Each structure stands twice: as C-alpha cells, then as structure tokens.
Amino acid sequence: MHKQDFERARRAFLKAGGSAFVLSLIMGGGFATFVAHAGPLEALSEDQAKALLAMGRTLFPHDSLDDRYYQNAVNALDTKAAEDAQLRDQLLEGIGQLNAGGSFAGMDEEMRVAVLKKMEDSAFFQTVYGESLNGLYGNPEVWKIFGYEGSSVEHGGYLERGFDDITFIPKDS
To answer: In the chain, what are the domain boundaries?
Structure first.
C-alpha cells in the first residue's frame, strides 16, 4: 500500500468512528473520568491493557501526547469491566482478536490499522473507540496541550478574550 493510499484509508477509518462518540455519550452517561487510578488493574492483565493503549494510540495518534493520557481510557474500561461481566467478556474477546496475529502492541502502525479496519463494526471497537475519544479529548489537561482554553460561557463568551488578536491579518487599510 502506498503512503497516500494508507493516509486516505486511515482518514476514512477515523471518520467512520464518529458515530461511536455519540453512542458512547448516550450509553456511558457522559465523559469518562480523567485521572488515572493508581494501583493494579482490576479486570485486565498488563498485556491486555497494553493492547488497548496501542489501540487508542492508533485511533487517535498524537506523538506529542504521553501514554498517561491514553491510559486514562484504559483505566476507565478496566474499572467498568471489573463491575460488568458482559463488558469484561467483550473486552477480553476483542483483545484476543487484536492479538490474533501476534502482539497488537508490538505491530507497526500500518498493521494495527489493518487489524482495526476489520473490527470497526464490532461492539468491542465501538466501546473502546468511544471511551478513548472521551478519555482523550474530554480531558482538560489535553486541551491545554492542544491550545484549547475550554468553554468560554463562564467567562462571558469569546469576544475580547484574545481571540481577536491575530497579527497576520492586516487591520482595515
């Protein structure tokens, strides 16, 4: 696969998961918690958690973000799976499929994308996609890294808060 074809396929793949975000908000009752819990995993092994972390990084690749931001979603899934046997079974089965061709976390990115494309219609994929999306982009710490200042409503809106200070567009001549 040529690099351009790979990038096109990847963009289409990432776009296809948008509905999972809405579904995860409805099913999950809102955004995930953003602080990774300390201590051992409850329902998943370390290797299983690594596979989910690699899945999150593949779905939402940001080289500038530390693994701990992705780990928040893994921890949230682990906590939920410890309380919900059906979710735990879904995760274990899905992780088994991720690792069917070898260690998912050890695969190169192109191979991981190919594995995920085959699974994108599964309940497992939708669950992990939604939790990763919420855990990453709903995290105020990540907002700061990306330069997003958060909601402006409680600060009186966007006007006169520095959003009109662009210097590369000339003022009225």
So the answer is: 3-149
Q: Could you state, in chain order, the average pLDDT of each consecutive group of 10 residues for the chain (173 residues)?
A: 58 52 40 45 96 98 95 96 97 98 96 97 98 95 89 76 68 64
With b for 16 or more beta-carbon neighbours within 10 A and e for fewer, the 45-74 pattern comes to: eeebbbbbbbbbbbbbeeeebeeebbbbbb
135 C-beta neighbours (distance < 10 Å), count: 27
Report the alpha-carbon distance of residue 133 to residue 18 in Å, rounded. Answer: 9
* SS3 category, 19: helix
Find out whether 119 and 97 touch, Cβ atoms under 8 Å: yes
Distance between CA atoms of 108 and 115, rounded to whole angstroms? 11
E strand intervals along the chain:
none
**Secondary structure E strands in 5-157:** none
Distance CA 102, CA 58 (A): 16
| Alpha carbon distance 138, 116 (integer Å) | 23
Query: DSSP for 101-125?
Result: GS-GGGS-HHHHHHHHHHHTTSHHH
